[in-house]
What does this fold into?
Amino acid sequence: MSAKRIVSMCPIEELLVLIGGRWKPVILWWLMSTEKPFRFKILRQSMPRISQKVLTQQLRELERDGLVKREMFPEMPVRVEYSLTAFGRKLRPVLEELDSWAREYLL
Amino acid sequence: MSAKRIVSMCPIEELLVLIGGRWKPVILWWLMSTEKPFRFKILRQSMPRISQKVLTQQLRELERDGLVKREMFPEMPVRVEYSLTAFGRKLRPVLEELDSWAREYLL
DNA sequence: CAGTATCCGAATGGATACTG
DNA sequence: CAGTATCCATTCGGATACTG
It folds into this structure.
């Protein structure tokens, strides 16, 4: 009667809100692959199969959810760099597990 | 000139083809939670937020990709049971990592 | 019980053009 | 350079009704 409504008993559901996007694990994987931030163009070249529009969208969502930091340098021409936030870096073990599983069973 | 075309350097991309569906990790998580197969109805009740159509679709894809086994018993009324294949069970470490991460950071 | 069929709106994807 | 804007086609997802 008074209990909180149970939406789901599966913890993964909440996580999928953050990284469930079609390209988000891939984007995070690239950002995690090095300490250095990625310029937008480099990120784009790293993922030839994602369109510019979708890449921008997914980055905006990752930024909104606190996983990715976007930094803009008002030079000429403009430079924008993407990197993981401290919270985003906490995903490392998750992405590493995905990575090593894929290497073992899918390559 | 003669090299194979490089589609992506990110191994995770291939894995997302298998489990990238909106509900697939959740379905697999439930199927992994016990040794016993799930009847369709129980699976459906476990995930109140997924529609029957989508649940069926995702199960078909998981079946097609060799992760889930579907067994039909022509009784009256019909009984259908879903369980993981041997290959599907290999995903356990991946799902456990997702699960424990979600419990630590999202609950 | 475990679906399929249908309809429909939303989200996604891709190409192209334009901008600060 | 790093986007935004627009158009358009395809796919996805949810609700409802029907079936062996």
Observations:
- Residues 22, 50-54, 57, 77-78 of chain A lie near DNA strand C (CB under 10 Å from a C1').
- Residues 1-6 of chain A have pLDDT under 50 and may be disordered.
- The helical segments of chain A are 12-19, 24-32, 40-46, 52-64, 86-89, 92-106.
- The two ends of chain A are 51 Å apart (CA to CA).
